User: Fold this.
Amino acid sequence: MTGTLNIRRVAGALGAEITGVDLAQPLADDTIAAIRQALVEHQVIFFRDQDLTPAQQVAFGRRFGPLNIHPYVAGMADQPEVMEIIKEPSDRINFGGGWHSDMSFLETPAIGSILYAVELPEWGGDTLFASQAAAYDALSPGLKATLEGLNAVHSASREYSAQGASAQKRGSMNVAEADGYVGEYVHPMVLVHPETGRKALYVNPAFTLKIEGWKTSESKALLDYLFNHCRYEGFTCRFSWRPGSVAFWDNRSVWHFALNDYPGQRRHMRRVTVDPWPQVAKVAAAAE
Ligand code: SIN
Assistant:
């Protein structure tokens, strides 16, 4: 396989479908580089008709960085980096059913997520994606200047604590309750993409609690404004899954939302989540 991929954009703000590559095979470095280039350029990329075992999904994901082990959702027994996202016919609530960016509640958030469709409902179960780079671009120069240098506090407390929203959302998923204090981490509200230099808004309704140093009421007013702005349909694309479809999104510039519109049916996905490569300085420190 060479670095040549067939790439077709699917919407104005983000998203492209890639054909001509079998993700189950060991891929050449130039093919991986071309996929990575397509990811950062299009922010979310889609593949069809793949046939991936969990081990093959792990092998593919590891080409982009170390894989995350989710702190609250148990992975597969023999492949802990693979998270199964399942909604059974009897479940009312789905996992990922709200706008979010994966793992922004960690000190070092995940850079990408690779989701593979195993079993799908007869209808429904699409996923929406929203470009936070497009959302940033559309702000006025005045609001851009206001956001520059501001940080926001992110935490898993709202979703994963005993009182959190996902306490009611667990259904058949093997989700652990975050015990007590789950940690709060501060990230810039405007993220400069380390690979493209493009700016994107980096706040999300699931995990962003407040703006650092602002009163709660001030913070809520601006975050509510941004959360509304960020999901404008002109910034989005929608992916209709088939068994064997894969979506790979860049969490540094993309929100996503798993639609819950297939009552009484089963949906089964597998996700691996890619962390950034450890920085050389951190590796050196750990080795001491
Ligand atoms: C997720 O939030 O990772 C789940 C997305 C989906 O199931 O479509």
